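Example (one chain per record):
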Amino acid sequence: MAGLKISGELSIYQVGELKQQFQQALAQALHEQSPLELDMSEMSECDGAGLQLLLSVAKSASEFEIAVHLVHTSPAMQELLNLYGLAPRFVMKELAHE
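Predicted structure:
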């Protein structure tokens, strides 16, 4: 399964450098025809730019019928996704490879 571990902030200051990592992970998922697993266990916060990056990845993945799994998502992140009605775009998982 293709994956990426997000550490620290997913914010406007990191989006530029993380975008390429997300694209590489998505390319690997496409090559493997497997879900893209984003481990969020070490993510400390997410702002609007970070949320936009997640949505961009989810949109690109859906165009290729690739699921995006959010693993170890904090309650605050789950609440944010629910608040904006975005949770259905992702599969929430507690443990990798469930």
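Caption: The mean pLDDT is 90.
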